[in-house]
Design brief:
single chain, 487 residues, alpha/beta, 6-stranded mixed β-sheet, 15 helices, 22 strands, 39% helix
Length: 487
């Protein structure tokens, strides 16, 4: 093992940046720690303005060739990347579980296969992307999808590689080049993926990875004048900073931000299904932006719902995410754990009551928690905790349910449990959310639009909406006269 690599359970990962098809070291490093047991995984190259600028230059140099590559050939290469990912699912799963603490079984069975699917889907969508021709008084309008240029993608730590490839795959399919800045708390699978993509035949400079700690590398990337698109998933305050930098260069930006989503449970719902949906919100130790952390239950069934929920949630097994029997792993970082506990303790001081949980465990584990007796305007109801903490409130009718559901600054998602199709239609029409699930949760088709309303985001990802963002649409108008055709 060289000074620039580390080994995670037998899997070797390079700790340097990936720029222009080469590994690039930095003068400084930062420590990457596993949330499982607090062990140091290694020292990671810490990017600065210099590495950020080099990555943009590499992406700019590679852009003309990649943009000119025929659609069918771009699609073939993206399918080759998917093939290569599928061969390394076990390695990617092991590394990411050690790096961010999510369940190993989830990585093996769902998360990493989805990474490969992201590339296959957008490769196929690219081939089928239409050119829309229409007539205006005998003149032909021809719409084309032109690649925009170098794209900066900044991604979070809760599902690092899957969320990154939601962006990387459509950006590359559209003919753009990419500079990825992975989350500093879980950067390893991005580095491993860079090697996998290169081995699959992705040309040098088309994908670049700059690791950062703190704001320097990110600020340099989003403010660079040669960047043509910025896509960010993360917090609202960081999005505002990025938006200001993007505005200075008039660069289109897409934001997928936080959520404080509701789960509305009506008295006519299948109660066992509703309880299952509620307990599912503890997935990934509550570190899911889409999670329905505000459970709103019709008053007449609240007592029975709470009893069944408590019984089911109390049976969840919390522990080592590498164990097949574990249901909930650790939270990502000690800072995040302290933030979660701070929310809970302030809620208790304000009068909230603990139904289950409400306490820290050993290491970076927080007990699955449900709080009730919470005010609608309280911090615990209004702000994103991003941990295994749910609140329970009651309502008396549809109007109150919708009012409570919509009464935050967020609008990412909502879940509705009801046995009445008419009610489902009425309620979903009135909810402010980018995605509404009825009697289900976390079902996402890549051809559907995904994103949030209000402070939960700007723009949509998925299908044609992704290409609409990553392309410059051009309309060519041709007159019916003036042609000198030669046979």
């Amino acid at each position: 093992m060289s000074e620039h690599t580390l080994t995670v359970a037998g899997v070797t990962v390079d700790t340097r940046h990936w720029i222009g098809g080469e590994r690039v070291a930095s003068a400084d490093t930062f420590v990457d720690v596993s949330p499982i047991d607090g062990s140091v995984l290694g020292e990671i190259a810490r990017g600065t303005t210099a590495e950020a600028s080099a990555a943009v230059a590499a992406a700019r140099a590679a852009f003309p060739g990649w943009a000119a590559t025929a659609r069918a050939e771009r699609a073939r290469i993206l399918h080759a990347v998917a093939d290569a990912v599928e061969k390394r699912i076990e390695d990617l799963s092991i590394v990411e579980t050690h790096d961010n603490g999510a369940l190993l079984r989830s990585h093996r069975r769902g998360v990493m296969p989805r990474v490969a699917h992201n590339f296959r889907f957008f490769a196929d969508w690219l081939v089928g992307l239409g050119h829309e021709d229409f007539d205006t008084r005998g003149h032909t309008n021809h719409v084309s999808w032109d690649p925009a240029g170098p794209c900066v993608l900044i991604t979070p730590w809760n599902a690092p590689l899957m969320l990154a490839t939601w962006k990387i795959a459509p950006a590359l399919a559209a003919g753009n080049t990419v500079i990825l800045k992975p989350a500093e708390w879980a950067p390893l699978t991005a580095s491993l993926f860079a090697d996998i993509a290169a081995e699959a035949g992705l040309p040098a400079g088309v994908l670049n990875v700059v690791q950062g700690y703190g704001a320097e590398a990110g600020n340099a990337l989003v403010s660079h004048p040669d960047v043509r698109r910025i896509s960010f998933t993360g917090s609202v305050p960081t999005a505002k900073t990025i938006a200001a930098a993007a505005a200075a260069n008039l660069v289109p930006a897409s934001f997928e931000l936080g959520g404080k989503s509701p789960l509305l449970v009506f008295a006519d719902a299948d109660l066992d299904l509703a309880v299952d949906l509620a307990v599912e919100q503890y997935d990934n130790a509550g570190q899911v932006c889409l999670a329905a952390t505000r459970i709103l239950v019709e008053e007449t069934i609240a007592q029975e719902f709470t009893r069944r929920f408590t019984e089911k949630a109390s049976a969840l097994r919390q522990g080592d995410p590498r164990d097949e029997t574990t249901d909930i792993g650790p939270n990502i970082h000690t800072r995040q754990l302290e933030k979660i506990d701070g929310f809970v303790q302030r809620a208790l001081t304000a009068g909230a009551r603990v139904v289950i949980g409400g306490r820290r465990g050993e290491g970076q584990y927080y007990a699955p928690t449900l709080l009730t007796d919470v005010a609608q305007d309280s911090e615990i109801v209004q702000e994103e905790v991003f941990g295994p903490v749910l609140t329970l409130q009651t309502f008396t009718d549809e109007d109150e349910a919708v009012r409570l559901a919509n009464d935050t600054r967020f609008g990412l998602a909502a879940t509705v449990a009801t046995g009445d199709r008419g009610r489902a239609a009425r309620v979903t029409d009135r909810l402010v959310a980018g995605t509404v699930w009825v009697n289900c949760f976390f079902v996402r088709d890549l051809q559907a639009p995904f994103g949030g309303s209000r402070h939960s985001g700007v723009g949509r990802e998925g299908g044609t909406w992704s290409f609409d963002f990553y392309c410059d649409l051009k309309n060519t108008v041709s007159a019916p006269k003036g042609w000198r055709d030669h046979g």
